From TrEMBL:
GO terms for molecular function: ATP binding; ATP hydrolysis activity; GTP binding; metal ion binding; ribosomal large subunit binding. It holds the Pfam family YchF-GTPase_C. Its cofactor is Mg(2+). This is Ribosome-binding ATPase YchF. The gene is ychF. It comes from the Bacteria. The keyword Acetylation does not apply. The lineage of its organism: Bacteria, Bacillati, Bacillota, Clostridia, Lachnospirales. ATP binds at N10, V11, G12, K13, S14, T15. ATPase that binds to both the 70S ribosome and the 50S ribosomal subunit in a nucleotide-independent manner. GO terms for cellular component: cytoplasm.
Length: 365
């Protein structure tokens, strides 16, 4: 999974990015690297892995991972090539979801590019750039489709869709709120890979004092929440500056510091929960003496496709999956006892894998 961090300059993107990648690097005792100063791979914290790992005396624990990209350079006019403009926009096209950082904190030492703190205005500025960029794609596509549409029914139908979509974007609305008339249109829309189709998680960057009550008393956070709700997006409240301090701490100190702040979760944990939620993701687990590992899949994935995450051979030669839920396994103490109690199920091709399933695949090669 790849998440792109966007937002206006000076809203706290890099501070957040650094804290996420640092926290990630520190919490993992194996080499999670930074590929590039702007790309970081962060392991997904999952307490179940440690418990399972102990149970199986495992050599290696491999958590799921998220790739974060710090996408700088988005300013008004980016879609017209201002700032890093188009380069930045093409970076966003590759991500699964957008983390849009909005400034909700006052600090006279940190200059705001538009002179004042106003999250809704900022959101609109960024979203319009994304819409403009999508419009460009749609216009190019219209030009190409129009040529063949006279003699080709399918192209004529697509052209009609493109024209409707263009009007929608021109009204300043994101493609994800566009009403599609059938599955064919749905499939076409996916092929355009529009920025404004991507799920968005707003990161409301607040001052430290607003953390404990999750921004409840901050009027600007309330505005962002209302906006996101109407759009079907997620919001999480963070103080990027504090997050950076948290990232520097050892595991024990971290817990104490969070407690002092009245928090149960770090920003990284909040963000990961929001991403899994908005992308409809869950994790299943595999465990053994060599390796204990978490695998990320879309909710609703059936057993053979879940197996395909591990290896394409597992999907092709899928026979059955032996499954016990994490909770049952831990309650029973080990796999054999779970089996004796009838809690290990043998599931076939139609089984929909659940979050926390501990799975052993049986397959032909
Ligand atoms: N007061 C305060 N300052 C912050 C916070 N997050 C970032 N900053 C400061 O804002 C400035 C810009 O931050 P940066 O992360 O570089 O913003 P970017 O341009 O969006 O990447 C830096 O001086 C940060 O120290 C925050 O939560 N509170
Ligand atoms: Mg930056």
């Amino acid at each position: 999974m790849k998440l792109g961090i966007v937002g206006l300059p000076n809203v706290g993107k890099s501070t957040l990015f650094n804290s996420l990648t640092k926290a990630g690097a520190e919490s993992a005792n194996y080499p999670f690297c930074t590929i590039d100063p702007n790309i970081g791979i962060v392991p997904v914290p999952d307490e179940r892995l440690k418990v399972l790992g102990d149970l199986y005396h495992t050599e290696k624990i491999v958590p799921a991972a998220i790739e974060f990209v710090d996408i700088a350079g988005l300013v008004k006019g980016a879609s017209k090539g201002e700032g890093l403009g188009n380069q930045f926009l093409s970076n966003i096209r590759e991500v699964d979801a957008i983390v849009h950082v909005v400034r909700c904190f006052e600090d006279s030492n940190v200059i705001h590019v538009d002179g004042s703190v106003d999250p809704l205005r900022d959101i609109e500025t960024i979203n319009l750039e994304l819409i403009f960029s999508d419009l460009e794609i749609i216009e190019r596509r219209i030009a190409r489709t129009a040529k063949g549409a006279k003699n080709d029914k399918a192209l004529a139908k697509e052209l009609e869709l493109l024209e409707r979509l263009k009007l929608h974007l021109e009204e300043g609305k994101p493609a994800k709120s566009f009403t599609l008339s059938d599955e064919e249109e749905e499939a076409l829309l996916l092929t355009y890979n529009l920025l404004t189709c991507k799920p968005v998680i707003y990161a409301a960057n607040v001052k430290e004092e607003d953390l404990a009550d999750d921004g409840a008393k901050n009027e600007r956070v309330a505005q962002v929440r209302k906006f996101a709700k109407e759009e079907g997006s997620e919001v999480f409240v963070i103080c990027a500056q504090i997050e950076q301090e948290i990232a520097e701490l050892e595991e024990e100190e971290k817990k104490m510091f969070l407690e002092e702040l009245g928090l149960t979760e770090s920003g990284l944990e909040k963000l990961i929960a929001a991403s899994y939620h908005i992308l409809g993701l869950i994790s299943y687990l595999t465990a053994g003496p060599k390796e204990t590992k978490a695998w990320t899949i879309k909710r609703g994935t059936k057993a053979p496709q879940a197996a395909g995450k591990i290896h394409t051979d597992f999907e092709r030669g899928f026979i059955r999956a032996e499954i016990v839920s994490y909770d049952n396994l831990i309650d029973c103490g080990n796999f054999n006892q779970a089996k004796d109690k009838g809690l290990v199920r043998s599931e076939g091709k139609e089984y929909v894998v659940q979050d926390g399933d501990v799975v052993l695949f049986r397959f032909n090669v």
